[in-house]
Amino acid sequence: MYPEKLLAIANYTKPKVFPILDELRHWGAEQGLEVLVNEAIAPLSCRPNRRWLAISLGGDGTFLRAARQLAGTETPILGVNLGSLGFLTQLGADDLLPALEQISAGSLSIEPRPRLEARTAQAGYSAYNDVLISRVGINDFAKLAIYADEQLVGRYGGDGLILATPSGSTAYALAAGGPILTPRLEAIEVTPLCAHTLALRTVVFSLETRFRVQLETDGALAIDGDQVEKLSAGDQIAIFRSAQTTSVVLLDRPHPSFFELLHHKLHWDQSPG
Fold this sequence. Notes:
The protein is an alpha+beta fold and 273 residues long. It has helices at residues 17-31, 60-70, 96-104, 172-175, 258-266; strands at 5-10, 34-39, 52-58, 77-81, 91-92, 108-119, 124-127, 130-134, 142-148, 151-158, 160-164, 187-193, 203-206, 211-215, 219-223, 226-231, 236-251. The chain is built from 5 helices and 17 strands.
């Protein structure tokens, strides 16, 4: 039987989350399933595995935290949106219990999504959406060079550089003018952030490409929107496909496809006015 256990990773700042947790516990008791709850900002208090189902209760930020916590466990994640945009989260709150009935009946698929690894001299980090190398402050300027498989791609001056997975192509990289990549595409996109030239555009690389970024000014490193490290001129960052993946639950219709999400969330293909 799948799942063997439910793990709710919940954003406690969302008022809606507590009645949903009560409903989830009640449903689990009826099914004879143990329901464990973990606050999104806290370390996991258990060791889930691929036979568990994790449920992210919050917005995209909560989903990203859950994906980070569960990276390497093969535990599938079902995203429930309690925020505003919620592009990474497939369901609304009212859809959760019907979705669990579908999952219990086996009406689902589980898709592994690639992650990126970023390594500095200090630490290593894993990203579901993107790796950002940016200027330090609002009045600063970032200058860096990026190499793909040790070939110089270019020197970038401006606000920074975003390296995004297909999952992250609809996040910061899209706002910076990058393309939308479909989720199953095995690629990494490199998008300049407010480059001080018209001659630099997004480049899409194979997922197997290994990047090296050389800073010529001080900077900052952010992983999935969270700043994790300040950088100095001369520092280098290695970025490449992670050995870890994030397993995402995809439900059968009537739940939205990728392009239906684009239509609904980002107003794709809609005329202005």
